[in-house]
Amino acid sequence: MLAAVMLAAAALAWPVSAAASSSRWIAVSVATLWVKPGLARPVDAPAVAADPRAWVAGMTTAQKRWLVGKLETQALYGTRVILLATSGAWSKVAVPGQPTPRDSRGYPGWVPTRQLSSVRPVTGHSVAVIRRPTAWTWQTPSLTGRVIELSYGTRLPALAWTTSSVQVATLDGRSAYLKRAAVMLRSRAAPWPKPSGAQLAAEARRFLGLQYLWAGTSGFGCDCSGLTCLVYQALGVTIPRDATPQFAEGAKVVRTALRAGDLVFFRGASGQIHHVGMYVGGGRMIHSPATGLPVSVTPLSAEPYSSEFAGGRRYVP
Q: Which CATH architecture best describes the domain 197-314?
């Protein structure tokens, strides 16, 4: 645990230089993007210090509800972002891997500058993609000495592996190790195969019981569209970050033709899309319902979902 604290502290201390390039990389487990600088409360100190597990665990349901409208999204360790502006100890960035009509460069928001690195990561021939809600990196190949807890979907250069562990490169150029069973290995040069709908649904089920977190896109907490975006991206398919633009893309699917992996959308009295889930078959969806509730499987026939159903969208054949 001490090693984890030391590495996290080192990551937070990495300077962000005024380099000509606007690229930066997320240097902490999960970076939370805020609507503007200075909104964080005392209870949000773990988020600023990049301890997402302690942050989520330390908030009451009411304190989580307060976050609605205050947070934008989250970005995972090693994710490239584009630096847009700085204000004091905060930086505004865009996340290219999270498309949005709000900004062609990617989803925008403010993060503590110390959560960013200006050092371009090393690359390898292979990539390890974390496939569990969270997974620890370790100091040794025998998986001793915890370093940092990372989220599902985090991608790291894979240097070598055995049947029990995978050696990965961290942003500071060091090596760490992950359980082999916790990751999927992909060749960096090979195109990603299109996942099946059944694969997408199976991946989404990994998050059953995970608590809803507004703007969350990680294995520490997800909102409704954060869950769908995260699962698709972990399997190599980029879709918009939010529910409304997700509904605007993909192929339309009527309710009677839904297949596992399709996204299902809901609109309220205002007529606007306000919720998304993933169809898992049998007339049911898996979704992250609302603050205070966990990811669960729910029948589409249940209210208010039955009367609010707006349509389905298919992103994979």
A: Alpha-Beta Complex (3.90)
How are beta strands 183-187 and 126-130 bridged, if at all? antiparallel
Which positions are annotated as active-site residues? 224, 275, 287
For domain 126-187, give its CATH number from 3.30.450.30, 2.30.30.40, 3.30.499.10, 2.60.120.230.
2.30.30.40
The answer to whether the CB of 150 falls within 8 A of the CB of 134 is: yes
Which tokens hold the place of 166? 């995978």
- The total number of residues written for the chain in this structure: 317
* pLDDT tens track, the chain, 317 positions: 323 333 333 333 333 333 336 999 999 999 999 999 999 999 999 999 999 999 999 999 999 999 999 999 999 999 999 999 999 999 999 999 999 999 999 999 999 999 999 998 888 899 999 999 999 999 999 999 999 999 999 999 999 999 999 999 999 889 999 999 999 999 998 999 999 999 999 999 999 999 999 999 999 999 999 999 999 999 999 999 999 999 999 999 999 999 999 999 999 999 999 999 999 999 999 999 999 999 999 999 999 999 999 999 999 98
**Amino acid (one-letter) located at 138:** W
Is 0.85 surpassed by the pTM of this model?
Answer: yes
